[in-house]
Amino acid sequence: MIRVLIFLLILIGLAFGEAWLIDRPGEIVLTWQGYRVETSVLVGLGVILALAAALVFLWSLLRYGLRLPSLLSIATRSRRRDKGYAALSRGMIAVGAGDVQLARKSAAEAQKYLRHEPLTLLLRAQAAQLSNDPSEAARAFEEMARRNETRLLGLRGLHSEAQRRGDAEKAHHFASAAHEIAPLPWTARAGVEHRAAAGDWRNALATLESEAGARHVDKTTRERQRAVLETAIALEAADTDPEEALRLVRAAVKRQPGLVPAIALNAKLLSRKGEIRKVTKLIETAWPLSPHPDLAKIYVNLRPSDSNADRLARALALARLAPRDVESRIVVARSAIAAGDFKTARENMVPLIEAGARPTTRMCLIMADLEEAEHGAGGYVREWLARASRAPHDPAWVADGVISDHWLPASPVTGKLDAFVWQRPIERLNIGAEAEEAIFTPIPAPPAPPRIDDAPAKALSPPQSEAAAAPSSSPVAEESQVGQVIFPLPAAPDDPGQEENQKPRGLAQLL
């Protein structure tokens, strides 16, 4: 709107100026080289303006002619740049799509047209990584590290390649160099994990706390890693300096109320001091958040002088805090078997082994203990032991394919801090649906019990009828994708078997 007003004001000014000149006519006389030119003022001004326009036009033509080579060069570079960026875009898309050939071709084309563009080096490195060419990727990252604008990116790429090769010292060197340039979350994390991989928990904690002031690690991750490192230090100091260990695990539990190793160590250290009430309150608070066998073991066996009935009462009190959890039922069943309360044990195990459920190895072993404690050794015990050999794994501490029976602060494979997770290990043996149920094949009994195959397999389905549940003198065999797996006999050759008046029990009677 303001521009329109200004334009109108200019037009009005020109109109007034022209009217003023018309009202005041005059003459211009020019005498030069014997020539005499007479004209009016308006015509003279028009001639002057025309000559000025002609001079400007001629100067523009001359200037364009002088600049023509540079303009042609600019146009050529513009076309090359457009082709280079088009190749760069195709290459990035190809890397994301996993097209190795197109990614490498586009990287070469982008390098041809955009020789000094940093993104071409990134595309070249990513194409090399995609095609599993670590040497080419390392060369691209090294070239990035030599340039000021891409130095951090190159160092991070070299750090990643060193980690991929398993060269921890080189990875730490590149991360430290990058950290000196600009402290970043990944450089801080790399420094902590390098010290953690070496088992230097105190320096790792000091490094983490120094980076916390600069907020290079988000608060949630920082607090979790602090608790893990404090627990690791406390585990080492538990025997030599129990007071320091207790202080550390208390801080760890405060930071992470669901960190089971810290809770378990805290409970052990408190129980050594005789602070039974504090241990009870600690585990009862943690149980609904993280039901774990270690916590249940400490809670039930807190007083060595307790009878089995007292331990069962404690187990029932703990189970009421998380009544639907599997660990609650297992701890009650174990305590009930020890106390001779077989009814309570069965009532707690029925939901875990009933038809349609897949009992784990530990559940099958508990049922074997229950059968042996209540009815004595026999075919049913062997049947549950056979099922245990094929049952799914129970939860364990798992990290990077490593299964540990106790918690570790860092992965022994990669050195990653807080890598262990309490979960069921992955079953690697893929058995078809037709092999889900046991196949009982009547073959002659061998002179000695057959060998148990240690390969992991899925659990036998619960017996669905009395005939299927009854002990047999034939071994259990199963055809799977990896061959035949033979399990121990439900009744050994020298086992007298069932008495004549004992009827085989179905699943309902077994439970």
What's the gist of this structure?
The chain has 511 residues and is mainly α. The chain is built from 21 helices and eight strands.
What secondary-structure arrangement, pairings included, does this model have?
Layout: H1 2-23, E1 27-32, E2 35-40, H2 41-97, H3 100-113, H4 118-130, H5 134-145, H6 151-165, H7 168-181, H8 185-197, H9 201-214, H10 219-237, H11 242-255, H12 260-272, H13 276-286, H14 293-300, H15 308-319, H16 326-339, H17 342-353, H18 361-375, H19 379-390, E3 396-399, E4 402-404, E5 421-423, E6 439-440, H20 466-469, E7 476-480, E8 483-487, H21 507-510
Antiparallel strand pairs: 1-2, 3-4, 3-5, 6-7, 7-8
Helix pairs in contact: 2-3, 2-4, 3-4, 4-5, 5-6, 6-7, 7-8, 8-9, 9-10, 10-11, 11-12, 12-13, 14-16, 15-16, 16-17, 16-18, 17-18, 18-19
